[in-house]
Design goal:
The complex is a heterodimer of chains A (842) and B (261). With 842 residues, chain A is α/β, with parallel strands linked by helices. Classes of the chains: A alpha/beta (842), B alpha/beta (261).
């Protein structure tokens, strides 16, 4: 039996001070990258795009201000200010300029931006008009896809506004041979090309761009070596002086060459991780199997007696802190969908190796320690679980869960490996998977997964069944016929499927348009040189250079649609107690319930738009009158009573999440309406589409664009998150909920599924509590669920945190595929988290 | 299997239960009891009749008639969790001994399916009835509330002779017997009273474990909900220190013990 060092390792005093320094100020937007990027682009007009990208990257790394923060052992910061962010005008910029005034005040993820920065960026942006990926993507999209986006059926906003990210590069290779090794490999590939080759031009330009990028990174590290030496010269504290000298030596050595010890490996890792996020604005750049590729360096030092466990732990803790130093400013709408300043840098421990043997090691435990010590949302820490996982590892992970930090997320090898095999991965690659971002599995250093490609709201197509494809008076979907004449439930369900299929194809159109735009305008030579087989094929990831290519857009609202369709089937077609007209009328009137002012505003705007679409002029008085009518709740008492009865009858129908076989089977089928059509489509990089079923936190803002649904959900309230049952509807405890969720097909949703469970801390008390908790995870996984994560806080705690945010600055909760500080979330998202069923042990 | 159609009366099924037996369990609460313990936290379990109970302004029906098959289907749904944790089904109540045909058929079905089975019981029934249960029970969790028969009767309406007599026989015949004692202030919370029970428990053949269940008031508002008077309004739950002290008393009699189920 393998034995592990399972005890906690003492936290260094340095760590809390590093954390405190990080959180002293509100995060700030800085302009240096945008300015340098633009300078370079202006000098390279007319050159091949890949070369322009490399030169711009080099220009940025040569000139961007660098800084070493107090007491750091691992250095390299993308911004002057802690947790600051750079901007990326090559992807999009209009939204930022439009939000200059509001970005500091907004509820989700505010950023400070100085007058001077605003002025500088305004000037820079002039260059970018017409040159961004988002503008090119728009011009590639079919008009009906643009219309569907405008009407909130789905949103591909993530990659429309930003870089793609969502990758795990070949960290172990850089740790082993350094960028000098990659340069050699690239030169060899270049030497093999013949100038008469048909694709010589493209290939050679790409390889030369890689050379420029790698040289730039080496030069950047040397700048840090100089800075550290300079700071050491002026440092009177003997200990710090020695640290700075060592930092200087590290940066002189890595990442140019292979790392010789654990500290060098940590520093090398950090340069890779940070610089990927300077090259592009993509998030979810995921460190992946850190415990695996870092282990040899740790083991070597430990065996040689050159490092103590405490010192190694301190270095890891420093990396954990640095992962929280990176930041990104999104547009206001996206910020709500990704709330919590999250970059989704997913780091995973445990699981099998490529030969199917358990690979848990002492570093896997130290990853848990680091999360305990630093106690911040990053990294998105994950744990792989399979039948052979050591129990002590899961018990230790459960202890972390018990703190309420919402970490780790648990992933099931027994589902994910076969799911990846079904998508064409080799057995070895599938076994070696890690998670990207929230929940998306892939093989590191070989995959361009385009995970997180869009949010698709499965509730909206059902609304269109009731309106013959019209939304706000505009025909945006197919005319699936008069709903009153749908004689059987199958007629109704088929109409829903027709709407679904239509919009899924439009989503594919939109994603592929954006994909093309990234290929043509923002290929990434630095990232690509660390993903197989870009160097071999002589093309960037964005052009299809990776071994595995996917596009993974996620659907959400399954629980609502399962419950809604089941309610319609039962009440309209089986019991014939109501007609579809009854449902339509009740939903149009929000089941007779009042609308709060925020939503009433939306309804008014929609109504006004509808009138204008119909060619009517709407005066200011008309608007006021509509608003008054909406807020006044126009329903008569008789209507209210009628709708209340309908709601009560809907309530009485069995719901998804309660381990009722018939309903669960129904939900499985409803999920197929999204997952099955999706896998038939291809992307321009030569890969296929694969569905995910998870919402990040978009179930709240996108729910706010969705009217009442036949499951009794009121207008504009959040829709169910991920594959979880609708909030408050799973009434039979955690095993029943987990059983229901496991009845969905998690294999076909190979871009990941997300199941959120919320636990009261008492449910995990004592050794027994931990054991039962691990059993719950294992029991769910035995039934082939793919992922589960937990919020362990009491409802009272969360309520109190809403009332007294100042007392709960460090309260971390699980939002979706990630954790965030509760007090930084918008009120509605906070409410949603509170509402998710609180599961207790009895 | 015809036994699967046997009907019984239950008032709740609680899943993911982590007390009352090893591992993760599902507890089936049967309706109807022979005793009327003054502190009972499930007063709705006592009457055989189906009742109305009003809690927080909502009136609900307590009690429903079900077949063994219906209950078994719910119980076996959590088999994956039992397998992983050594858990299973626990019959509680009420008193399961009041519905032998139903309870035995259910236990048999669960046992033959491969589940761990347990029963919480007062042991207050004819031993011929009890012996029908034993082949299908892995753990008998038996309440011994007091060694003094008169005090026992004053607080539970029944003397303890039959219970104590049955305890000896169950100890001899059952696969595993654990003694459980609710610690009720003014009734049995002195070291002498608990010590007497522990001594008796230690004298039973093969018994090595006794659990102390501290009194709590979580069932108090159910009495009002049923239109009944709560007979112990003035007592408060024992302190942690007091429970720790009683635990030492039990230990001193040579028994393993824990506070709570």
């Amino acid at each position: 039996m393998k034995t592990f060092y399972t005890a906690d390792i003492k936290k260094s005093d340095r760590i809390p001070r590093l954390v405190e320094n990080l959180y002293k100020k509100m995060p700030e937007i800085e302009a240096d990258r945008a300015v340098l990027l633009t300078e370079s682009y202006q000098q390279t007009e007319g050159e091949p795009i890949i070369m322009r990208r490399a030169k711009a990257f080099a220009h940025i790394l040569e000139n961007i201000p660098i800084t070493i923060r107090d007491e750091e052992l691992i250095v390299g910061s993308a911004t002057q200010a802690p947790r600051g962010c750079q901007t990326f005008p090559e992807y999009s910029f209009e939204w930022l300029e439009a939000e200059f005034e509001t970005v500091e005040k907004r509820s989700a993820d505010p950023f400070y931006i100085s007058e001077k920065t605003q002025e500088t960026l305004r000037e820079v942006h002039k260059y970018w008009k017409g040159k961004t990926t988002s503008e090119l993507a728009t011009s590639y999209m079919a008009p009906e896809a643009l219309l569907a986006i405008e009407h909130n059926i789905f949103t591909p906003g993530n990659y429309f506004y930003n870089g793609v990210g969502h990758v795990t590069v070949d960290y172990p290779k850089v740790l082993r041979i350094g960028y000098s090794g990659i340069i050699e490999e690239t030169k060899a590939a270049l030497a093999k090309l013949r100038v008469g080759d048909a694709d010589y031009a493209k290939r050679s330009q790409f390889l030369k761009a890689v050379l420029i990028s790698c040289e730039a990174v080496i030069g950047y590290a040397r700048r840090y070596a100089k800075l550290a030496d300079m700071m050491a010269d002026g440092c009177s504290d003997y200990t710090r002086k020695a640290e700075l000298r060592r930092i200087a030596a590290n940066c002189e050595r890595v990442p140019e060459f292979g790392a010789r010890d654990f500290w060098e490996a940590c520093q090398s890792f950090w340069f890779i991780q940070m610089l990927l996020q300077v090259e592009s604005s993509g998030h979810s750049i995921s460190p992946g199997r850190f415990d695996q590729y870092m282990y040899p360096y740790f083991k070597k030092d430990l065996d040689a007696g050159t490092i103590s466990r405490e010192a190694a732990q301190e270095l890891m803790d420093c990396i954990w802190v640095k992962l929280n130093d990176l930041n990104k400013c999104r547009d206001a709408a996206s910020a709500e969908g990704f709330a919590g300043y999250s970059l989704f840098q997913n780091l995973i421990a445990g699981g099998q190796d490529k030969n199917g043997i358990d690979a848990t090691n002492d570093l896997s435990f130290m990853c848990i320690n680091a999360t305990f010590h630093v106690f911040l949302p990053a990294p998105s820490f994950s744990v792989r679980v399979w039948n052979g996982s050591p129990q002590e590892f899961l018990l230790r992970a459960a202890e972390l869960t018990r703190t309420g930090i919402g970490l780790p997320a648990y992933y099931n090898d027994e589902v994910i490996i076969p799911a990846l095999l079904s998508r064409g991965l080799t057995m070895e690659d599938a076994r070696d998977y890690n998670i990207i971002g929230c929940v998306e599995p892939q093989k590191a250093a070989k995959t361009d997964g385009w995970h997180d490609a869009a949010f698709f709201n499965m509730c909206r197509p059902l609304e269109l069944v009731f309106s013959r494809g019209k939304d706000l008076g505009v025909q945006i979907g197919p005319d699936t016929g008069e709903f009153r004449s749908m004689k059987t439930f199958d007629d109704f369900y088929n109409a829903y499927k027709t709407q679904m299929n239509y919009f899924i194809e439009l989503l594919v159109n939109a994603d592929n348009a954006i994909d093309m735009a990234h290929m043509e305008r923002c290929p990434l030579p630095f990232q690509s040189c660390m993903v197989e087989d870009c160097i071999g094929r002589g093309k960037s990831m964005q052009e299809g250079g990776a071994v595995y290519n996917f596009t993974g857009p996620q659907g959400f609202g399954i629980a609502n649609m399962a419950d809604a369709l089941y309610a319609v089937k039962t009440l309209v077609y089986d019991q014939k107690k109501y007609t579809l007209c009854d449902f339509k009328e009740a939903m149009d009137n929000n089941y007779g319930k009042d609308m709060d002012e925020h939503y009433a505003e939306k309804v008014t705007k929609n109504a006004v738009r509808e009138l204008m679409e119909a060619g009517k002029t709407v005066s200011r008085e008309d608007v006021a009158a509509i608003f008054a009518a909406v807020t006044a709740n126009p329903c008569t008492d008789a209507q209210k009573a009628k709708y209340a009865q309908l709601l009560e009858d809907i309530e009485a129908i069995p719901k998804f999440g309660n381990d009722i076989p018939e309903v669960d089977a129904f939900a499985r089928d409803v999920a197929y309406t999204y997952t099955r059509p999706m896998e038939t489509y291809k992307n321009p990089r030569g890969g296929s589409f694969q569905a995910g079923l998870y919402p990040v936190s978009a179930n709240v803002p996108l729910g706010a664009q969705t009217g009442a649904t036949p499951d009794g959900r009121l207008a504009f309230t959040p829709v169910a998150d991920g594959v979880s049952p609708a909030a408050g509807r799973d009434m039979n405890g955690p095993t029943a909920g987990a059983n229901s969720v496991s009845k969905l097909d998690h294999f076909i949703a190979s871009n990941g599924t997300l199941y959120n469970m919320k636990f009261h801390p008492t449910a995990l008390a004592g050794t027994n509590g931990l054991q039962n908790f691990v059993t719950l995870i294992r029991g769910y996984f035995d039934q082939k669920g793919a992922h589960v994560q937990f919020n362990v806080v009491s409802r009272e705690t969360l309520r109190d945190a809403q009332a007294h945010p100042e007392k709960y600055k460090s309260l971390v909760v699980r939002v979706a595929g990630y954790s965030a500080l509760f007090t930084t979330l918008s009120r509605s998202l906070q409410d949603d988290i509170i509402k998710r069923t609180e599961q207790g042990g009895f | 299997m015809e036994n699967m159609d046997v009907k019984g009366r239950i008032f709740d099924i609680q899943r993911f239960s982590v007390h009352d037996g090893p591992g993760i369990r599902t507890i089936v609460f049967l309706k109807g009891c022979v005793l009327r313990c003054k502190w009972c936290c499930n007063p709705e379990s006592q009457e055989w009749d189906i009742q109305k109970m009003t809690m927080g302004g909502v009136t609900k029906t307590v009690g429903r008639d079900v077949t063994v098959r219906e209950v078994f289907d719910t119980v076996r749904a959590d088999m994956p969790y039992y397998k992983r944790s050594g858990g299973g089904v626990t019959l509680s109540g009420g008193e399961s001994l009041c519905q032998p045909d139903f309870a035995v058929a259910l236990l048999k079905a669960c046992k033959e399916y491969g589940m761990d089975t347990a029963m919480e019981s007062t042991g207050c029934a004819d031993y011929a009835v009890i012996s029908r249960y034993l082949p299908y029970l892995d753990h008998y969790l038996m309440d011994i509330k007091h060694m003094d028969s008169r005090k026992h009767e004053a607080f539970t309406t029944m003397p303890n002779d039959l219970i104590l007599e049955n305890a000896k026989r169950i100890a001899r015949d059952a696969a595993h017997l654990i003694i459980r004692t609710p610690v009720i202030p003014t009734f049995n919370d002195t070291p002498e009273e608990i010590g007497a029970i522990a001594e008796f428990a230690a004298s039973l053949e093969g018994v090595s474990e006794m659990h102390l269940l501290p009194y709590h008031q979580m069932g108090m508002d159910k009495y009002a909900g049923l239109g009944r008077e709560y007979l112990l309004p003035d007592i408060t739950p024992p302190s942690k220190e007091h429970m720790d002290m009683l635990r030492e008393v039990v230990r001193s009699k040579g028994l393993r013990t824990q506070i709570g189920g």
